[in-house]
Amino acid sequence: MYIEANGRQIEAKPGEMVLDALNRAGVKVPTLCHMAGLFPSGACRMCVVEIEGMNGLVPSCAFPVQEGMKIKTHSPRAIRARKTIVELLLSDHPDDCLYCVRNKNCQLQDLSEELGVRQRRYTGAKSECNIDTSSPSIVRDPAKCILCGKCVRVCEEIQGVSAIDFAKRGSKAHIATAFDMGLNVSSCINCGQCIMVCPTGALRETSNIKEVMDAIHDPNKFVVVQHAPSISVTVGEEFGLKPGTDSVGIMTAALRRLGFDRVFDTSFSADLTIMEEAAELVHRIKNDGVLPMFTSCSPGWIKFVEQFYPEFIPNLSTCKSPQEMLGAIVKSYFAEREGFDPKQIFSVSIMPCTAKKFEAERPEMGRHGIADLDAVLTTRELARIIKMRGLDLNDMQPQPTDTPFGERSSAGKLFGVSGGVMEAAIRTAHYMITGDEMDEMQVKDLRGLNGIKESTIKVAGIELNVAAVSGLGNARQMLDDIRAGKKQIHFMEVMTCPGGCIAGGGQPVGARLDAIKARMKSLYEIDRDSLLVTSYNNKYIKKLYDEFLEKPLGHRSHELLHTHYAQRDVLM
Amino acid sequence: MSNIVNEKCCDACEHEAEKPCPDLIDCLTGAKKCHDDPACIDERNKEIARLQRKILDRPAIFIGTGTCGMGAGAGKTLAKIKTYLATKQIDADVIEVGCIGLCVEEPLVDIQLPGKNRVSFKSITADKVDVLLDNVFDGMIPEGSVIGQFRNGTSGVWESVPFFDEHPFFARQTRWVLENCGIIDPVNIREYIAHGGFAALSLALREYTPSELCSLLEKSGLRGRGGGGFSVGLKWKLALNTQSDQKYFICNADEGDPGAFMDRAVIEGDPFRLLEGLLLAAYGIGASKAYVYIRAEYPLAIARLKKAIAQASEWGLLGRNILGSGVSIDVVIKQGAGAFVCGEETALIHSIEGKRGMPRPRPPYPSTSGLFGKPTAINNVETLANVPAIVAKGADWFRSLGTNSSKGTKVFALSGKINRTGLVEVAMGTKLREIVFDIGGGIPKQKKYKAVQIGGPSGGCIPESHLDIDIDYESLKTVGAMMGSGGLVVMDEDTCMVDVAKFFMDFIQRESCGKCIPCREGTRRMLEILERITQGRKSEKGVDALERFKGVMYLNRLAEVIQDTSLCGLGKSAPNPVLSTLRWFRDEYEAHIYERKCPSGVCSELLTYSIDSSKCTGCTVCMRNCPTEAIMGAKKTPHYIITDKCIGCGTCVEKCKFGAVIVQ
Amino acid sequence: MNETIETILSKYPNAKRDALIPILQDVQEVEGHLSVEAVAHIGKYLNLPASKIYGVATFYNQFRFETLGKYHIQICRGTACHVKGSAKLLDAFKRELKIEAGRTTRDGMFSLEVVACIGACGLAPVISVNGEVHAGVVPDKVKSILKMYREKDANNE
């Protein structure tokens, strides 16, 4: 069917909303609250258009197309309405853009610019707000909140957590945890997906830039840094590189220029995780252990289980996540080897994730009062310090990662996408059980952006049902199915964020779906082109076991690389 | 009528609890007999006459114990009456009835002696009970407190006592919806049936298909009495024609408009009428479950409705297999928790679902996807209370009254600066002037009429120049007002229209759900603009004046965008009180803005108080009553006011017997 | 405390979300307010996040999170009452009780609340004290009304 937009005929699909048809035809109508794939909330009213025969302006996000309808998207009336709405929002906004983390990357700012807002037309009292800095991962600044409700929806509808909701009403309406308590004592799992959908600076990560810079400038500190598998394919976007560009070499160069004494790759410890996790899986299968086993590298997921599904805690792999494994190895094996007092080492990780900041603060993650990690930075913070130092990724020469934790298999690199941990684990588990390599390394069923991916793998006559889940709403569904006996799964990978770490809560804000697909493709290409695709063939991993750890699940592994979980009593 | 619910009245009767007789109601009221045992018929006819109080075997005393009555002291009056009867050992029935509508004269007590007409008395506080009852039982009607006697169709007229229906408050009313209010015992189903109740339900279940019922309503021209004025029959049809395994009907009794209380009065005074209307409506759309969403602030209405539901289900008039028709309808009460926006239908639905009462975009309309995602229709109390009579008497009967576009009657709640406050029901097309001056008795204290606010926060104010409009949905829109639920608040020369606009904006911005930006932020800014206009020079700094003028400049633009873009009706109509007062009372705004004066003397910050020393006798009354000790002076010498301390509360003006306080 | 809530919840077998508001009303009726514990308990029963319950409870005027005073004074701020001077009446109560609307006096005797409309517009201005409606209340009467309730309390009525 056809509709007419601004005098031009465009195609529309029956049942879809006007906005969808307009967007497909390249007619840009601004929105602040629209979320693709979810029921329209119709809250922001920015997408209002004139429709012939209708009285008031109509929100295009929530109005179904009708054959032959005539739409004006940018009539003076519609533009005046949009401008007034932005002016109204600004009237209760700190408008201190220069001080805002989202300066130059803010939808409200963009709209204000596009609509030519040049004066404070409406002025009045601003809402009284308190910044919530209680969380180790996320800072909430309600003063900048425009109540679009996207954070509430992503928390509820995508992540199945519902740590926040609207509270009160009218001009007192705000987003709140239960009883307006701090995020730290709420059921928030620190995933940061709320930050990713926030159009303004009302949500941001808790910044650890200062600690890191202080450490770098402290002559008594030896500062090491590791970067997560997905960072190299996302950080470039902050510097205008095409989404998915693998910039591992130039990023390494930049990190050295920033003053880090050693640059390691978390993908190395992802290989280590695989060794331990695959061994644990094999052990559980051979010894009638608790199954299904769940992966444990996504800290949002861990807190989710501890809060909502404590009965599944025994199912979680006891393996620490790769960042913590590397952190622990750095402050033990590496420190010993290089002759450092572990207290002298300041260990930083660059993560696509806000929950990793929480994870690093867990008391279990350290030994003898020394934390495995000292600071976690998100991709965004990394970009910020690179810019602060006056560097640009575009004019750097690639450099190799430092040894001994520099080499990684592409299996470890796959940790950055949903399904990747599972794929990497299967490769190694197959070898551990059969002693043979798999014929076909890639498990197609576990690739792609679907929230729930399942497959059955045959290993030495055993049929292993495996699943890779991303987005905790999906995880909730799987857990409920498992609990109800509807699913027979042996091994399940869960990543908190939809699509995995490439779309983590610490990644560049404002990425569209095609950018996320490009990031995913890039990691798959790295695996495709790699000569080392299995963790157990990583010679530095072998060396680490030979020199230090002895064997997977051995005594030292147990002490350094494994952890435990406990039920959390928070107001849910 | 005793035991007819579960037992046969005589051997010829086929009615049983398990197999209810479809003709039960007709048979009870004598309209149609399915069997003709003369003794049985006689017994039933007598019973009806007794219930209609055409025959009385002992005195009956009626007391209005609606919320208004109780507020005026009816509770104490009632206790006193009971004590009186006990002490004097008089055998009489005491019947608590709802509100007849003349709130200003509460507590109202009616007395009917056997063989005589029922007489209504006003302002019977507890202290007046003894005298009144002494007199009446002695056969004397105290002239001062009588409202009038009812016509009974029989003898028993009191000499030289005026008739009730000639009282100016009642004479011009057409009481269809309020027919039984204040007359019958609201929680006695027998009385309701004896007064023609449930005949419509019985008829519809027997004779009409749901689709025919919808057509009947459509033909009658009945429009929703809550706000939008949508055709009732059409609305039902939309829900009826949506296929679904489950449908719901919702009665909106969340009367949130400040200044409206007709729904409360109907439920308190005649709950069965609402129930019957609701059952008809549910049948009309094919719903098996009906909800009454009622404000928790109406405890008495809720209690009476609960009793009505219990009795009706005991009688097999709701629940499973109503009157043997095979139709089953359950009625559930849901108490609102206090949010004006829940009058909006999608917000109301969310509230019943246990969510925040925030509206959502339409389409989909509730008729296709409403409560729990099922087809749902919603009408308010007054609308549904109109339905039984339409079904019983026909569409043409209903159409015979009213204007071209608006049929039937409308109930209004008269309040504010008017002599006879209360609840009135008039034919559509009645002139506003008639309501205010003839029925309402005009403005007290010889003050001048200024405006009447109609339609609540979504409505507007109507000035003197438009008092002669015929009230209907369309005409009200032409003067910038709307029917709304029917609150009529009268304002006199002492009311400041800017203050009224501010009052409504304050209400709206507090009641806005906060979801859409224009309503949430816009109403708040509009309120602030009005606040700046009404704020005083004292507190104003240099830049404030600029802000004040800037606000005024953009007030209209802001109002238009709010109307144009808001998500729901509450937001779309939020600017109405401002636009309407701006339209008709621009001069008052200008006085506030340019002259910095409040001509009506309401906006206290714009007023300065001083004492005219030539009139002041130094009696010290003002000084003693001043809440902020802003008045000083020695006894018997003229006092003076310390302007800095004065908060402009006006107490001194009220207290001064010599008119010595000057307000400027 | 858990017992009282259990008793209330037992009246709602197999309850779904639509029972939330009635349950909150019942709990508040018994306990006087909604406590964190009560909300957590209700949340577990209905399988509803506490944030959602808090969101609902803060949306409606009826719910509170602190106990009220012994006498709950509601000042009607409907249109009719406004026109008849309820703003000044409210000021008088505030002055007399030395509290803002929405607060409770230190001795826990009186809570002052503004309500949208009591629905007794014909008797404006009206107030309601613990559900008892007082008609035609002018600022002058404030002292005597408060005195009456203080005496009532002293006499343990």
Task: Summarize the structure in words.
The complex is a heterotrimer of chains A (572), B (664) and C (157). Chain A is α/β, with parallel strands linked by helices. Chain A folds into three domains: 2-74, Ubiquitin-like (UB roll) (Roll); 138-209, Alpha-Beta Plaits, CATH 3.30.70; 210-561, Rossmann fold, CATH 3.40.50.1780. Chain A has helices at 18-24, 76-91, 107-114, 150-158, 193-197, 209-216, 248-258, 266-286, 299-308, 322-338, 355-361, 379-388, 410-413, 420-434, 472-483, 513-529, 539-549, 555-561, and strands at residues 2-5, 8-11, 48-51, 58-59, 70-72, 138-140, 164-167, 174-177, 203-205, 222-227, 262-265, 293-294, 345-351, 366-367, 370-371, 375-378, 452-459, 462-470, 491-495. Chain B is an alpha/beta fold. A five-stranded mixed β-sheet of chain B has the order 2-1-3-4-5. A five-stranded mixed β-sheet of chain B has the order 11-10-14-12-13, with helices on both faces. A four-stranded mixed β-sheet of chain C has the order 2-1-3-4, with helices on one face. Chain C is built from seven helices and four strands, in the order ααααβααβββα. With 157 residues, chain C is α+β, with helices and mostly antiparallel strands. Chain C has helices at 2-10, 20-31, 36-46, 50-59, 79-83, 86-97, 142-154; strands spanning 71-76, 110-115, 127-129, 132-134. Chains in contact: A-B, A-C, B-C. Chains B and C meet through α3, β8, β10, β14 and α19 of B and α2, α4, α5 and α6 of C.
